[in-house]
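Fold it.
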Amino acid sequence: SDKISMGLYYAEHKETNARFVFSTLDTLRDKEKREIFAKNAFDTIIIDEVHRAGSSGYQQIMNYFEPRLWLGMSATPERNDEFDIFSLFDHNIAYEIRLQQALKENLLCPFDYYGISDLQIDGKTFSDEDFSNFNKITSDQRVEHIIREIQYYGYSGERVKGLIFVN
């Protein structure tokens, strides 16, 4: 059959017999869940957001699997923790384009980017906190801070729409 099969392997989704299997770091860093697959079960493994591959979770996955090809994708391969992402792929770069060039070539839609400083409470920013308690991330004070910043910078259209990246 010419039908391409795709499966999801995370949480309650356990579709592992498909030609293409999509999973998450959280699932595959669990040894038992990772090891239901043979080390060489996949011809190719693609890692999106590969700039995070220096973390122990990604390293566990990369040390277990043995595909014929690893493909890493990232818009931000440079890390501030000095981990060399490029060495994971023997410094082979299939394609590289930076933000300004991608915009110039009309590969991205135009956007406005505003970086705001995080809220400080008692002299500490939220980035200094341990976020094992996610309620701190969405505290009323922090949400009000973000809303004030949106009102300051403005927005177009009938309502605020945005994408928030948290470092």
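The longest strand covers residues 6-10.
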